[in-house]
Fold this sequence. Notes:
Helix content: 25-40%
Number of helices: 11
CATH superfamily of the largest domain: L-asparaginase, N-terminal domain
Distance between the termini: 19 Å
Shape: elongated
Radius of gyration: 22 Å
Strand order of the largest sheet: 1-5-2-6-8-9-10-13-14
CATH architecture of the largest domain: 3-Layer(aba) Sandwich
Number of domains: 2
Number of strands: 19
Low-confidence stretches: 1-42, 407-416
Mean pLDDT: 86
Amino acid sequence: MAPQLRKSAAKASKPAAKAKPNGKGKATAAGAAKTGALTKKTDKVGTSPSGLQLLNKDGNSRRKVLILYTGGTIGMSDIGGTLGLVPGSLLKQLQSLQELNQMKMPQCLFDEFSPILDSADMCPEDWCKIAGVIEKAYYEYDGFVVLHGTDTMAYTASALSFMLEQLAKPVVLTGSQLPFAEALTDARQNLLGAIVFAGLADLSEVCIFFGGKLFRGNRTKKVDATSLEAFQSPNYPHLAELGTDINIYRRRLSDPPRGRFRVHKIHVTQIVVMWVIPGFSDEFFECLVKSKSVKGVVLMLYGCGNAPARKVSFLKCLRKMVDAGIVVVACSQCSTGKVVLEKYAVGKAFSECGVISANDMTTEATVAKLAYLMSKGLSSEDCRKAMQQNLRGEMSTEMNTLRINEPITDLSSRMS
């Protein structure tokens, strides 16, 4: 059964307003023509050779959600005793999902990647493909659901958050730990919840919905390989939760955009993540200095940004990397907390070498942000400066920390 809205928030729905170029409604024909949006046929929006498929005829036609299936466990089938991807199989199952026909559900159209992918095979080229579908269909839909494998979902969500600048509509990623066809699957609730949130006018950011909670995409990590609550947001509270009611914590949401929607591409992939471990050898880092292809290094340090103080050669190696134009960003090996390089003497020495702090960003967000900035053609110095700025809510600042800690009184939303 689809979740019901809190009665206190149920209001008479209003007709959809004409959208501005960055608005949340549907664009006018003239506006769509200027932006290159489709105005005649939506079956050319996606990537599937068969075109878009309508999943529900009785849904709330005032709002439209595009569901893009990229692959992952949610659509897998048993193939000779092992799980595998079968094109078209998930569509057949969704077409019989009766919950989609409830009146409060938005109208849902389905598209499928060709080919569909295990999320372990996802790369920046596929991020661009997803962003391209959203860009092409942006003024035709009120929200987007991206069905994705769980293993790299946090990377994709983080990347999309940077690629989709001035986003005024919800983009919700979800998947499942068990295939849709299995009896005890988490796929149905994850999918229905993602559709509900993608159909809301309150959201204007990239999110992950999983295990009953809505998270900011670039704050999320996969923390459990088998649990049905596989994702957490270690350093930022969840945005909403779905139970018998839909509770939205409005002060935690991103502010509505003020500019025109733009899509950026990510094509730089010369980034490595290096973990500091007891007794590590400098030789690995020396190889990075000698390499002409590495442009960014995410350095996983202990705690708040600590590392062995006796390895003077390591500090020299870091200085060589920075001097060679490699952007070195320090992340914590801990799930929660933030990197404060000035807290310990060795961390301060790192900072003096040109290493910058990732603050409380996840590793996934740090990698995606670094790739995004480098793809813009910024110099290493400009990249270092931008990495320390809050671009899409990916890191905590004094302002948003105060904001999320304010008392919450309005916990409901409406689907109108």
